[in-house]
Automatic annotation (TrEMBL):
Residues 1-23 form the signal peptide. Residues 32-41 have a biased composition (Basic and acidic residues). It comes from the Bacteria. The lineage of its organism: Bacteria, Bacillati, Bacillota, Bacilli, Bacillales. Residues 26-51 are annotated as: Disordered. It comes from Gracilibacillus boraciitolerans JCM 21714. Keywords: Receptor, Signal. This is TRAP transporter solute receptor. Pfam families: NMT1_3.
Length: 262
């Protein structure tokens, strides 16, 4: 494997977030009073103690080739094992933007989401035309790195070289696509200037190797499994981002941070 050493990348963290039920305070007070009365009457059965619990929980993850999927599936297994009367299932999805929308719509109880995407959702900014809420952050899991990957013999050295090329920008509605748009925009590049392809990490890796695309954006924890698999069978390199552009991007999107990968 031959990998070009690039000193500058943009790093961002993700949050595991959970759905917070929003209800009328007076109704909640009435419900609580009724539960207390039932307890007073001697109703202490297990069914009473778990009344109102969601028994079947959905955990939204990401593509099966990314980090979100195995992590979300493992989290679901832990919930199922340690929470009585609850069965959790981790399912693949389009990742962060899709997850935020579906979580808000009540289609799931937990989801893995980049923290910048969760912030934009609550603000109703960037890729969200209106406020998308109904969820809160539970905990930070790990930092993710925005990587632009191409084959080692490619003529692509900088982001500007992506013009006219076939570029995988991530799944539709993924955090990867959002980050790809941010980086492209900082270089005055739009989808009109490239041949964009929407695909997950696994498909992007396969298509890079087969010569169907020229480069791919990947936002994931490092090391990233799909990139490692690609590097095992082909020489690859990481496309650099100039430091002045990194400063510009961080200034506009302060949830992003500079990092180094060697």
């Amino acid at each position: 494997m031959k990998m070009k050493k690039i000193s500058l990348f943009i790093m961002l963290c993700i949050l595991g977030i959970f759905l917070v039920a929003c209800g009328n305070t007076s109704e909640e007070g009435t419900d609580e009073k009724e539960k207390q009365e039932k307890t007073t009457e001697g109703d202490t059965t297990e069914e009473s103690n778990t009344d109102g619990w969601v028994e079947n929980i959905t955990v939204l993850t990401g593509s099966e080739a990314g980090v979100y999927f195995p992590l979300g599936v493992a989290m679901a297994e832990i919930i199922s094992e340690h929470v009585d009367g609850v069965t959790a299932t981790g399912i693949s999805s389009g990742a962060s933007v899709v997850n935020a929308n579906e979580l808000s719509d009540g289609q799931a109880e937990f989801a893995l989401v980049q923290n910048d995407i969760a912030f934009y959702a609550h603000e109703g900014s960037q890729m969200f035309e209106e406020v998308v809420d109904g969820f809160s952050g539970a905990f930070t899991i790990y930092p993710e790195t925005i990587q632009i990957v191409t084959l080692a013999d490619s003529s692509i050295e900088t982001v500007k070289d992506l013009v006219g090329k076939r570029v995988a920008v991530g799944d539709v509605g993924s955090g990867t696509e959002a980050n790809a748009n941010q980086i492209l925009a900082a270089h005055d590049i739009t989808y009109d200037d490239i041949n964009e392809e929407w695909m997950d990490f696994g498909d992007a890796s396969t298509n890079l190797q087969d010569g169907n695309i020229d480069a791919a954006f990947v936002t994931a924890g490092t090391p990233t499994g799909s990139i490692q698999e690609l590097a095992a069978s082909a020489d690859i390199k990481i496309v650099s981002i100039n430091e002045d552009k990194i400063d510009q991007i961080i200034d506009e999107y302060p949830l992003l941070h500079q990092s180094r990968i060697r």
